[in-house]
Amino acid sequence: MLTILRESAVTEDIIVRTYLIEASWDVDGEVWCATSPDIAGLNAEADTFDELFSVVKILIPELIDLKANEEIEFELVATRSERLKITAQA
User: Fold this and answer.
1) Burial of 61 (C-beta count, 10 Å sphere; 0-12/13-18/19+)
2) pTM attached to this predicted model
């Protein structure tokens, strides 16, 4: 299933598609991970969010079939959560 967040004609010959890529922090591995419901096979890891962004930029063209004069945009959406234990203060 392909979720196109936005599709608009930039010119008569170019269509721009925007793909959703989800990034999350792996607490155990201490790395950022990226997957996508839109791009089959996209699985990436990196130490920093900026590095993950760069890796994703390299992987996307390898995983999707671009046609002539086609451009894509992607949105890398990050979530990070942690569990805190609150202790009562005396």
Assistant:
1) exposed
2) 0.70
Q: In CATH terms, is domain 7-79 a member of 3.30.2390.10?
A: yes
> Can you tell me the distance from the alpha carbon of 50 to that of 32, in angstroms, rounded to the nearest whole number?
10
* Rounded Cα gap, residues 55 and 43, in angstroms: 10
C-alpha 9/C-alpha 30 separation (Å) is: 40
Query: Domain residues of the chain, as ranges?
Result: 7-79
* DSSP count for the chain of H helices, then E strands: 1, 5
> 55's torsion region: left (phi>0), alpha (psi -120 to 50) or beta?
alpha
Q: Residue 88: CB partners within 8 Å, gap ≥ 6? A: none
Instruction: Return the pLDDT at 13.
Output: 61
**Is residue 1's pLDDT more than 70?**
no
